[in-house]
Amino acid sequence: MAKLHAQLEPFVPSSTNAFDKVKAAHLLNRAAWGGTTDEIRKVVEMGPRRAVDWLLDFPDGAADEMSQTDMPDLSQIEGYPRSFNERRSLLQGKTAEERMLLQQQMNQANQQAVRAVSTWWVRRMTKSPYPMHEKLTFFWHGHFTTSARDERSAFAMWRQNELLRTHAAGNFGKFVKAISHDPAMLDYLNNQQNRKAQPNENYARELMELFTLGIGNYGENDVKEAARAFTGWAHDGEDFIYRKYDHDEDEKTFLGRRGNFDGNDVIDIILQQKACAPYIASRFWRFFVNEEPDAAIVQSLGDVLRENDYELRPMLRTLFASKAFYDAKNIGSQIKSPVQLVVSTVRTLEITVPEFARLNGALQQMGQVPLMPPNVKGWPGGRQWINTSTLFVRYNTSLWLAGGEMVTSGRPLIDRRNQRQKLQSGVAVKTDAEPAALVDEWVDRLIQRPIAEDKRGILLNAVGSKPDEQSVRGMIKLILSMPEYQLC
Amino acid sequence: MASNSHTRRAFIHRGLTLVSAAVTVPSFIDSTVWAMADPMDSKRLQQESGADGKILVVVQLSGGNDGLNTVVPFADDTYRRLRPAIGKKAEEVLKLNNYLGLHPNLAPMKSLYDDGMMSIIQGVGYPNPNRSHFRSMDIWHSGIPEKEMVASGWLGRYFDNTCVGQDPHAGVSIGETAPLSMRGEKISPLSFERPENYRYNGQDAEHYKQLNTAAPAASLDPKAAKILTPGSQLEFLTRTAMDAQVSSDKILDLVKNYNTTSEYPRNEFGNGLKTIAAMIRGSLPTRVYYVSLGGFDTHANQMGRHDRLMKELADGVGAFWKDMKEQKNEQRVMMMCFSEFGRRVQQNASQGTDHGAAAPMFLLGPAIAKKAGLIGNHPSLTQLDQGDLMFNIDFRNVYATVLQDWLGTPSKPILGQQFKTMPIITA
Questions:
Q1: Testing the interface with B: which of A387, A413, A446, A479 to mutate, by most B Cβ within 10 A?
Q2: What is the model's pLDDT at position A402?
Q3: Minimal Cα–Cα distance from B284 to chain A, Å?
Q4: What is the 3-state secondary structure (H, E, C) of chain A?
Q5: ipTM strictly over 0.85?
Q6: The CATH number, out of the four listed (3.40.720, 2.40.50, 3.30.1330, 2.40.128), of the domain defined by the range B53-193+287-415
Q7: Residue in B185, B221, B234, B290 to test binding to A, most A beta-carbons within 10 Å
């Protein structure tokens, strides 16, 4: 066993460095989608280790296994086939012209279905009793990226999403093999076109560059040879198929090994590479802790992953209980992704959103629609989220969620008929307290860290000397419109 | 409370005197804000607005414009044979010569052409054309067809290379989201669908502004100064928040108070061009404006729809140039018009056209060179690649021409290799 990096040792609370509500909120923000006052209190009581165990205590399965009814709602979409077989039978016996019209209708319906899946997922992030499960699923969506652009099947995207959920905290090795058989992925990265006679290197390259090893840990020839090993891995509609006659059965030389490898062999060899586990650890670190990982720390975290045969839970326990995770420089230093912003606002303010579909436009303007990442690298994140336009959309969307009216920049969030409809936060707003206590309470709930004294003064001015419900709700909206609220 | 403008001015002056104390100032404090903070200060306005600077207006036709029914080879037998239902007839097109004519609804652009203000670049495309809307649009936007993943666009890299100070107005895009082409690694464009929505919607604007300014008080408060560490996330966010406030006020003001006698068509495209004209009039330091006209994916029954789109395009473009002339800004402006691909030569069974490849581009402005009206040869209608026109001119030759001969910047760092420029723009 390699020695654990000192910064990855468990954080042990002390009288001078307690596991307080700032740290508990930090854990809930990063490992999940933020916490309510009650959840933060609960986590403080549990302490870091038990809290991480509690967050990780979810069944490793798909949403529809856990609840047969928790599925995207496609009932509003006219003419959308539920399966590819249905699609096929719809097209049978039609003239070329009829087929083309049907195809166009189905493509349009498919786009609606993709939005329905995306909406379903965002709603699930806000409602799931296992928030960390959805957070991990979201991480993997940005890692094993597949985009529904190019008219990719909504059904296949949903199936992939369930696959990401099933393996989210499971075994990374099994996960890589499963995703390599996934129809949406095979389609997205052109393995569908990868044939012995005409290899397509796209999947083999991204498998190593983005999914497992990182650039610099393999050569161009390894890409070519790995591509040969994946020839014939394809999909027929929603099912994986192995096209025997397209598969190259000859000997390959891959990362210094020789053999008649197929895709699974290539993955096994990749998992044996020294670079693999630290690379995965660094991806976790970037997403959950800090965009600039410390090389020694992620090396050591990678050791934890490898020594546990690529089981993800031990690594996650180490990460979220570590000293480094609770280091002051890592708290409140992450710019919330648009999805994080929306989901955490809904969760912490306990908002009832009648139709999540209305958030699609806002998410698009903020630059992040689930299932629609810009390219195989996923969303760049960090400061890329922020410019003068997206900042207005972020503020205005938060305002709307907190009970404001109307639009974000660009398209109205609410269609004209319902323009007056406001959302109602489920959180009770009390007013029978000192103004300063009210300001502190809400800063505590929403920003979850101390703010500058002068900003506190501005909020005190805003709430007035005799707070009433309206002025307190006004102050809440102001807190949502602060640069500080963009961070977690 | 002091008025907002007073607060901002006070802040700016305080801010500047405290720069050495590492106080957060807007990212473009030493340029635009000066002009904006005091519109009466014309010396600075001139200096910083780039009131003499050159401007590029990009018009994107989204969905794949049917090039063959835009610049029509009406005298070509193959054209007539392959497009019996949707082809434009010799007697209706606006003839450019005895082979080519513009779509009948492009009259305002025909007159720009006749005035030597428009160049038609024929058969523009790129090798191994991609027929997916998304992918092909990405290729036109990134300017790097060879690479699958490019996180920045050609105009974004132009901003990165030349527009220092991260001015948020370097690029302004009218639309829901900023196009990839405008996204740089350092600079991203400002984008909004309607100017009136590029603003804060909350009711308590006064306190919002205070909370989104590194107010003078904050800079004097040691605790606050500690939190706003230079280079920190919070400092970056606060800086952007200030940029947003200042530019929102400015743009809303410019658009609201804009008067012109030019009559723009009352549609989204016309409104977009009018908004751009207002910003040009207001001497924003913007180098590139971007506007789109969508709906060109005419797979079925294309006649009525494509005719309407042509009219929308030409009426908007015509009104814009009339306005530029009236503003006396026309010499500063060049317009570039493109689509992600053209359409198949042969009409399909639904009286529409499917995704194609090469298509014409337009460049417009007084700087169009003499004899640059028609550039290149019309692609052959018989020698096709999978039923599609083959390109004669790589779109990156056009980009290089615009970058070098109009925006005056070397194109190689932006496009990754040196593409030959074409004699279209006079210096």
A1: A387
A2: 86
A3: 16
A4: CCCCCHHHCECCCCCCCCCCHHHHHHHHHHHCCCCCHHHHHHHHHHHHHHHHHHHHCCCCCCHHHHCCCCCCCCCCCCCCCCCHHHHHHHHCCCCHHHHHHHHHHHHHHHHHHHHHHHHHHHHHHHHCCCHHHHHHHHHHHHHCCCCCCCCCCHHHHHHHHHHHHHHCCCEHHHHHHHHHCCHHHHHHCCHHHCECCECCCHHHHHHHHHHHCCCCCCCHHHHHHHHHHCCCEEEECCEEEECHHHCCCCCEEECCEEECCCHHHHHHHHHHCCCHHHHHHHHHHHHHCCCCCCHHHHHHHHHHHHHCCCEHHHHHHHHHHECHHHCHHHCCCCECCHHHHHHHHHHHCCEECCCHHHHHHHHHHHCCCCCCCCCCCCCCCHHHHCCHHHHHHHHHHHHHHCCCCCCCCCCCCCCHHHCCCCCEECCCCCCCCCHHHHHHHHHHHHCCCCCCHHHHHHHHHHHCCCCCHHHHHHHHHHHHCCHHHHEC
A5: yes
A6: 3.40.720
A7: B234
